[in-house]
Each structure stands twice: as structure tokens, then as C-alpha cells.
Amino acid sequence: MKTHSGVLVIAEQCFGDIHRVSYELLGKGREISQKLGSPLYSLILGGEGLNVEELNYCGADKVFYMKNKCFEKPEEFLFKENIVRFIEEQKPEVVLIGATSFGRSCAPRIAASLKTGLTADCTDLYVDEEGNLIQIRPAFSNNILAHIKTITIPQIATIRYKEFNEGKRDTNRGINITVLDAYVSLNDKSEIIEIFKDSDFDITEAKVVVSVGRGIKKKEDLEMFKELVELLGGHLGASRAIVDAGFIGSAHQVGYSGSRVKPKVYIACGISGAPQHIAGMKEAELIIAINSDSSAPIFNYADIGYVGDLYEIIPKMIQALKNNK
Amino acid sequence: MKVVVLVKEVPDMGKVRFDTEKGVVDRSSADAQINPFDLNALQAAVDLKNLYNGEVTVITMGPLRAERTLRDAYARGADNCVLLSDKHFSGADTFATSRTIAAYISKLYDYDVIICGEKSIDGDTAQVGGEVADILNIPHAYYVEKINSISDKEIVVTINSLCGSKQLRKMKLPALISVTKNINRNELPTVKRKLKSLKIQVEKFGLSNLIDYISEEDTGFKGSPTKVIKVVVPKEKIKECKVYKDDFRGFFSDVLGALKDKKVL
Ligand SMILES: Cc1cc2nc3c(=O)[nH]c(=O)nc-3n(C[C@H](O)[C@H](O)[C@H](O)COP(=O)(O)OP(=O)(O)OC[C@H]3O[C@@H](n4cnc5c(N)ncnc54)[C@H](O)[C@@H]3O)c2cc1C
Ligand SMILES: Nc1ncnc2c1ncn2[C@@H]1O[C@H](COP(=O)(O)O)[C@@H](O)[C@H]1O
């Protein structure tokens, strides 16, 4: 007899909205639970009024809704303390957590408390012949893919957002929701004084990203890119070089130490294509590169390229797009 | 103010070779250096020390050669340099690493803040900080872009991004923070400190020194719940790029077609 069974997806909510990564975890979790022949559970911690049926519709056999006001703000210690108690009672064999900023900050505490292994930022999961969960993750600055097995129970992994398809939504699936109260709702060691809006855009959600690199000479030159972005209905991205130069805020940075984006179209302007930049944008559906140096590595990753001066090309593109309207 | 900084020694990613056939990383192909993200952690610690008359202790777990990294940390402003090194420590995953580091910090006993980098560029997990905090049972904050204030009892920090928002958080000390690269700019070491760094004593601790705080089976490969069973080095996919030059019309019509194809326009 196995002591632990079931795949547990920790669903994430941000200020009352369920994060989409939760549905992706359910999609993958369903696959894993079928291979293991065990049920798929989902735990969500939040205040009143969450649409938790959606977790059932998107694949969870059973949903646990831990309801308490204390979960309305993201604070790792309280989430961890309650998730750990829940796991100790429920005894799942696999636990999946979204590799969002909050998920990645909570998961190490959860794993350490349970004295079990944790695999960060996985891009794929499968079950081998012996029924072990194999977790695949990039390491060495995205240069290698490691296949990792966890020899302790539960096996916990954080999973990248937008790596898997969302679980198929089926409203005929039975609703099975258990409401619980928090085990612990106070943390006297930490206090959230204020929450304020980060920036009014989220570059990871953009359909089009126009990114600018050291090919531009001064901050004012960003204006023409803003115009281009507007015409295409996208967001402005940047290489680290121009974020470090203070031309633009860090929320715009694409790459290994910035955001990983997966837009439909990515336009790299005056960006050389350093591996750390490529790591953040190579999964775009279509990549367009504009660079004055025909030997720039960016052209090895692009679908369409233009060798030329961006100060000439960008105004022409803006004009041509306007004419096309 | 007693500040502890966790610093990892990593290979230079620009030079390190990956064997696509065998699926191995050839660490001997590149020099070791301080993990770039940990330079910001160290700078944050040195800034605190300068403001509040503190003391900075740098801890590295790694092979004996990592002494060089600690000397570099000294040159950049650290006061005490500690190397956790033992044959039993090798092959550690993040949990075994965190337990070993936490064991040393428990032994150290007196500390106010632990600062670590956002992630290491080889391990790439960003897990060690959170695990150390949990083992020590102290609060933590990740993605810290600013230390707003600190007293002998508490610290107030600005967290760059949690659930799409910034957060101002107050934590009781001791606490652990992991800082982003935007928290500061790294200052270069002075020649004077560089020279002095060659002469300092790097304190070395092995399993036998920590035995009251951790047992052998909780360290190194033995103490690691995660096992790497295979490493794949993906071959770089080079795309067939349609490159235009001196032909804006051709380029633009291709771009326009693609934008329409992707339903962007
Ligand atoms: C740990 C670590 C993390 C990092 N993380 C990131 C990250 O997240 N994101 C990131 O971007 N970088 C990151 N980097 C930095 C990265 O290595 C490169 O330094 C950076 O991406 C270079 O930016 P760039 O392409 O804008 O500049 P450059 O490499 O200087 O390239 C500028 C390009 O512009 C072209 N150009 C110049 N003038 C013109 C013109 N008039 N018209 C057209 N083209 C022109 C040039 O030919 C050149 O190819 C990281 C580095 C480290 C060590
Ligand atoms: N072996 C180590 N020695 C000291 N500090 C470490 C070690 N490994 C990780 N750290 C710290 O933990 C942070 C996160 O590392 P990682 O979990 O490997 O991404 C690093 O930026 C360091 O501050």
C-alpha cells in the first residue's frame, strides 16, 4: 500500500482572481494523475467569493477551498504554514505549484518544512516505468535540461507559466468542493504595510513585443518605438543594457534576469542577441530582427531580418503601417 | 548590525563548455567567479554596514578553491569570510545545501539579516534562500528592490513583484531577504582592499565543526532528496532567417503578411 496518493495542484489567486497557471497545472496534473492511477486534487487559499468551481471544471476531482481573510494578501509564511498542514493531512504523492513570483517564493519554505525535495521552474513532467515523477528543468542559465527524480514524498515541483495547455474546461464535470478554515491565520513576524501597483502593464501577457537594445543612442529615441508599439497594440520591451543605462524601467526587461515572454510576434531592434536575452524571447511564435550588423547573433533566432539602421527603418515602418490603415 | 551574505561560486557562463553528446557540463573549461546576482547581495550588505556600523560575514559552501571567491568578497567590503567545505558536502542539492548553511548560521547564533542573491546562474533555482529561512524559522522576502529602513528589531523592505504588485513589508529580525539586481550598483574593490584580501584568514568549517547542528546523512549527495538522472544539452536550433538589406518594400510586405497571419493586425 502506498502511504501517499493523489496529485495536488496548489491553485494560485491574486487579489481574488484565479491565476491562469492554475488551469495549466490542472491540465498537466490530470495527465500525471491518470498515469499514476490516482485522483487529482486542488487546494486554493483565499478570501470570500472565489470562483472555485472553475477548478473542478478544468480537471480537479476534488477542490479544497481554504477560506480566510488572511489569504487576501500574498504573504508566504501564512500560505506555507497552512499548505504544509494540509499536505500532512491529505498526504498527496505529487504537489504542483505555479512558478509565478509568489509560487517560487512560497515553494522553498513548503518543501523545507516537509523535508522533501523541490524542483524549480520545470518545463515538463512525465512518469517513468517505475511510476516515478520525472521533472525536467533548464539549468546553467538555460544551457542544459536536467531530468530530476525526487526520492522523498511528496515530490514537489514548481511549473512555469504558459508551458502547458490549460485543462479542458467541462461544465458537466461534477462539482466537489470542500470548504476549510485556515489552521493558522496570524503571523506576528511579518506585516504587509502597503500594496501598490507595480506597473500598469504585464509584458508577459503581450501579443506583440517590440524590444529595444543598445542600438539606440538616447532615451528620447524611445518615442518612435512607443509609436510603433501603439500601432501594433503591443508592449515595449528592452534588453538589459538599456535598462541598466536607465533609459527604461526594469519591468520592461526581457531575458534571463528579466521577464520571459511568449508573444505572437517579437521585434528586436538594435539588440545583438546575447544568450541571456535570447533566453527570454526565443519562444515567441515569430521573431523579427532589425540590426545594422549582419553578423549579429540575433539573426540566428529570427524568422525575418533587416540589416540596416533602425533610425531609418523604424520611421519607415511607422509610416507604412499608418498608410496601411 | 550583523549581516550575513550567502555567496555562491559559479562558472563563467560565457566560457563554460557543454558536451551535447555526453550531456555533461565541463566545469574545468571556465574560471570560477562570484555568482553575478550575489554581487548585489554583497553590495547591499556592505551598504548596510556603512550606514549602521555593522559587520558583514560572507558564507560560501563549495570546494576549497572557492577560497578565492571569498577573498574577492573581502576585497569588495566583507569583514569575515567563511568557507563551508567538506568531502561529505559534495553533490548537495538545494535542500542539503540549505541545511548545511543553516547549520552554520545556527552555530553563529548572533545575526540580524541574511542577504542572498536572486538566483545562482548555474543551479538557477532561487530556492536556497527560502529554504534557509524556513529551516531557521525566520521570515523572508524575495525580490527585494529596496531596503527602506532597518532598526535593531525590524526591517522594512520594498518587494518588487508579488502577484503583479509591489509590496512594502515589515519583518521582525532576524530575517532573510533575497535582492534583485536593481537594488544597487556594484562598486569596484579598491586596490588597498584587494591587496589586503590576499592576506586575510578564510575560516574553514567542515562536517566535524557542525556536528552539533547537522548529521552526515543530511549533507551532500546522501542528504539530497532530488537526484539528477540525466542531463540533456539541447543543440542550438538555428532558424532559417529571411534577411533583407536595402529592400524595405520586400521586408515590409513580409512583415505585414506575418502580422496579418498572426492576427496581430
Ligand atoms: C547574469 C546575467 C544576466 C543577464 N540578463 C539579461 C537579461 O535578462 N536581458 C538582457 O537583455 N540581457 C541580459 N544580460 C546581458 C547580456 O549578456 C547582454 O549584455 C545584453 O543583452 C546586451 O544588450 P544589447 O543587445 O542591447 O546590447 P549590445 O550587445 O551592445 O548590442 C547592440 C546591438 O545594436 C546594434 N546597433 C547599433 N546601432 C544600431 C543602429 N543604429 N541600428 C540598428 N542596430 C544597431 C549593434 O549592431 C548590436 O548588435 C545578462 C547578463 C548576465 C551576466
Ligand atoms: N553553495 C552556496 N553557498 C552560499 N550561498 C549559496 C549557495 N548556493 C546558493 N546560495 C545562495 O542562494 C541564492 C540562490 O541560489 P539558488 O537556489 O542556487 O538559485 C544564491 O544567490 C546565493 O545567495
UniProtKB/TrEMBL annotation, chain A:
Record's keyword terms, sorted: FAD, Flavoprotein, Oxidoreductase
Cofactor: record remark: Binds 1 FAD per dimer.
GO BP: any one term: fatty acid beta-oxidation using acyl-CoA dehydrogenase
Record's keyword annotation contains Lipid metabolism: no
InterPro entries: DHS-like_NAD/FAD-binding_dom, ETF_a/b_N, ETF_a/FixB, ETF_alpha_N, ETF_asu_C, Rossmann-like_a/b/a_fold
Electron transfer flavoprotein alpha/beta-subunit N-terminal domain boundaries: 7-196
E.C. no: 1.3.1.108
Domain of life of the organism encoding this protein: Bacteria
GO MF annotation list: electron transfer activity; flavin adenine dinucleotide binding; oxidoreductase activity
Binding positions for FAD per the UniProt entry: 214, 239-240, 253-257, 270-277, 291
Swiss-Prot/TrEMBL cofactor(s): FAD
Protein name per UniProt: Caffeyl-CoA reductase-Etf complex subunit CarE
The organism of origin for this protein: Psychracetigena formicireducens
Gene name linked to the record: carE
UniProtKB/TrEMBL annotation, chain B:
Gene Ontology terms, MF aspect: electron transfer activity; oxidoreductase activity
Keyword Oxidoreductase: yes
Signal peptide range: none
Sorted UniProt keywords: Oxidoreductase
Domain annotation Electron transfer flavoprotein alpha/beta-subunit N-terminal: ranges: 22-214
InterPro entries listed in its UniProt record: ETF_a/b_N, ETF_b, ETF_beta_N, Rossmann-like_a/b/a_fold
Pfam families for this protein: ETF
Keyword Oxidoreductase included in the entry's annotation: yes
PANTHER family from the UniProt entry: ELECTRON TRANSFER FLAVOPROTEIN BETA-SUBUNIT, PROTEIN FIXA
Name assigned to this protein: Electron transfer flavoprotein small subunit
Upper classification of the organism: Bacteria, Bacillati, Candidatus Lithacetigenota, Candidatus Psychracetigena
Gene transcribed to yield this protein: carD_1
